[in-house]
Each structure stands twice: as structure tokens, then as C-alpha cells.
Amino acid sequence: MSVSAAPGPSAAATAPSRIRILLADDHALVRRGVRLILDREPDLEVVAEAGDGAEAIDMARAHEADLAVLDIAMPRLTGLQAARELAALKPGLRILMLTMHDNEQYLFQALKSGACGYVLKSVADRDLVAACRAAMRDEPFLYPGAVTALIRNYLDRVRHGEENADHILTPREEEVLKLVAEGHSSKEIAEILFISIKTVQRHRANLLHKLGLRDRLDLTRYAIRAGLIEP
């Protein structure tokens, strides 16, 4: 009679751990579609969802995630702002930007914000899974043509002396700038950021002085160029 071998380790013990993903997009329908793409993969799992950048930061604090997939254009905090905060809050967290914008400025800002990849929503079903896996291997992922766009954008910025402009503003000034550009009054901004109206007015004056601008319209144009709001 043959003797069966001793049972080996269980499948659960030997199976590779899944990549835990935080997904942030302000459109529930988009989140549902992206989640379907990710959750059908055996090595990927969405563990938290957020409807804006600020909620994404809260979710990152509350859940253990390996990778954040962020939309760029979101209320309260954009994906770009959230990426910067997440990079500081969770240095080991990989970040991918998922966006409808095939836009050189957004691409450049995303990479400077700490993202390791930039995926277009129009081809998410083709590229997103590969981008997630690349991110976890510490490899950058850019859609075809993005490298050329990145280099051209960088050279244009250097040529026009704009390369250091991103380091002028404090995080709070950037928040105020975004809200001003979105059309909020000083009173509304004060309520959103839990600061006084006088503080908002001081930030606005500092913004105009630092950036050499004249009025709200100029601030709005700058916010669009900086990727804080959609064109």
C-alpha cells in the first residue's frame, strides 16, 4: 500500500498577496467601471474608494493600501494636490494618475507630484492593469507618446523661465488659489478651509504679489496652467 505524502502548505499560505488599491474619482460610475477592471485580476484588489482628493487622504490613513489610483480633476483637493500629500504622508505608497486629459501640463505636474504613472481613461481597460503592476515593480508607466510630450514640456518651461514656478507657493496658498479660480468668495473659502476671511484675503494678496498677477482672472489662468482646475 502506498503512503500519501504529508500535505504541503495551504494554497492560502503560498498564494502571493494582492496589491491593495485606493481608488479616487468624483464620478461613482467611473469608480465602478475601474473597480470592475481591477477586481477581476487575481493579484489586484480595491480596498478603499474616495470621491475627492481630501477623502482619498482620509482613506489612506484608515486603510492599508499599496497603490493609489487618482483622478486628476476632483473637488476639494485635486488628484495632483492629493498625490503630493499622500507622497509625504505615506512614502511607500505608489501613485497612479487616471485621467481623461491627454494634456502635457497635467502629465508634467502629475510626475512632479509624486505619481509614477499616467493612464488615460479612454484606454484604461487596456493599460490600467499593466500600469498597476509596473508601479509595484517601481517602474514608471506612461501612455504612448507621453515621454516626447514630457521632454517637450520641460524644455518649453526652461526656455520661458517657468521651471521653478511650482516651488513658489505654499500648500495653503495653492488651496486658496484653486478655490479662488473655481469662483468661491472669500467668505466661502474661509468656511471651506476653516480659516478667517482676513487670512483668505492675506493669502490672495500674497498670491497676486508672488505670481506678479493683477486680479481673479489672472489667478484663474495661472491655476489652469498649473493643473489645479480644468480648462
Automatic annotation (TrEMBL):
* Gene3D superfamilies according to UniProt: 3.40.50.2300
Alphabetized Pfam families for the sequence = GerE, Response_reg
Question: Is Chloroplast one of the keywords?
Answer: no
State the SUPFAM superfamilies in the record: C-terminal effector domain of the bipartite response regulators (SSF46894), CheY-like (SSF52172)
CDD domains (alphabetical): LuxR_C_like (cd06170), REC_NarL-like (cd17535)
Q: Which residues carry this modification: 4-aspartylphosphate?
A: 71
Q: Which UniProt keywords apply?
A: DNA-binding, Phosphoprotein, Transcription, Transcription regulation
Which segments constitute the HTH luxR-type domain? 162-227
Concerning PROSITE patterns, the annotation shows: HTH_LUXR_1, HTH_LUXR_2, RESPONSE_REGULATORY
Q: Which InterPro entries match?
A: CheY-like_superfamily (IPR011006), NreC/VraR/RcsB-like_REC (IPR058245), Sig_transdc_resp-reg_C-effctor (IPR016032), Sig_transdc_resp-reg_receiver (IPR001789), Tscrpt_reg_LuxR_C (IPR000792), WalR-like (IPR039420)
Superkingdom assignment: Bacteria
The Response regulatory domain sits at 20-136
UniProt xrefs under PANTHER family: TRANSCRIPTIONAL REGULATORY PROTEIN NARL-RELATED, TWO-COMPONENT RESPONSE REGULATOR
Name the UniProt record assigns to this protein: Response regulator transcription factor
